[in-house]
Amino acid sequence: MTKQEFIKKFEAESLNIGEYMMILDKISDAPLVLGCAYDQGVWKVYETRERGGHFIIKELDNENDAFDYFYQIVLSQHNRTNN
Asked: Which of 10, 53, 54, 61 has its CA 20 to 30 A from that of 19?
């Protein structure tokens, strides 16, 4: 799915990712971020911990694959937060 499709799906399903915030336009080192951003020619799905600093979970070549993968990460976090 595209970034816009992901945003619509995230909002429509009222997904709750707990204390994490989501950043979709850049890679951030802020604490507790789940993100997906286009950086240096690839889509990077990443996470940061409480003390900041990011790590790349996966790099993908196209937007659809990146947001399909990122959706699974967000859904997993939603399930952990709400069960």
From this structure: 61
